Amino acid sequence: MNDDANSDGVSVAEFVEYCRIQAGLLSGQVERMGEEADDLLAEIDERVSEIRARLEDHRNAVAGTESPESAGGPDADVDVAELETLQDELEETQSVVEAKQARMQAFQDLAAGYTDLAEELESSVEDDATAFQRVVQFEADNDAPAYFQEQDRQTLVEAAAEAADEDDGEDA
Asked: CB 3.0 to 4.6 Å from 19: which of 10, 50, 118, 171, for a disulfide?
């Protein structure tokens, strides 16, 4: 990566601001994912309550029966297959929540990395080209573009790669 890639003369302060904006965007995505996870957890709670209620109703119906069992037996009132399906759905939803929580952690880690980088640039970097290189290297090392795909936002590393590709095309 050459130093000419920052030919627009972007200042260190602008790179610091860029890092802070990226961290803020990531934090916003974490908040949105948290709300989605909360919704899924509420759904899990509802389903667990439904399963418990069905089992409790069945238990009360069986305990209150004084007459001999019918040919269907006490399980005739409980649809075991339906309960197993509900349990499978619960497990699937729990897996989705766990995956979402892992994704949230990854986004939080990247946001913290951007924040740390902004502080580092602000306190110890005076050269615009060095700031540019550090941001691009950080984004490349952390696969930052993958975190912004849903926002259709181009990261600095993507812009630099695109500019390098255009330069290579002109040289050919």
From this structure: 118
> Helix (H, G, I), strand (E, B), or coil: what is residue 133?
helix
Q: How many CB atoms lie within 10 A of CB 131?
A: 25
Give 81-140 pLDDT, tens digit per residue: 887 888 888 899 999 999 999 999 999 999 999 999 999 999 999 999 999 999 999 999
Q: What are phi and psi of 9, to 5 degrees?
A: 70, 40
SS3 of residue 109 by DSSP: helix
Query: Any idea what DSSP says for residue 73?
Result: -
The model carries a pTM of 0.75
Integer Rg of the chain from CA? 28
Q: Which amino acid is at 135?
A: V
Q: Give the CA dihedral 45, 47, 49, 54, nearest 10 degrees.
A: -170
Which residue, 125, 112, 102, 150, is CA-closest to 20? 112
CA distance 137 to 154: 15
Query: What's the CA gap between 110 and 146, in Å, rounded?
Result: 11
Phi first, then psi: give them for residue 120, nearest 5 degrees: -65, -45
* CA–CA distance, 147 with 156 (Å, rounded to integer): 13
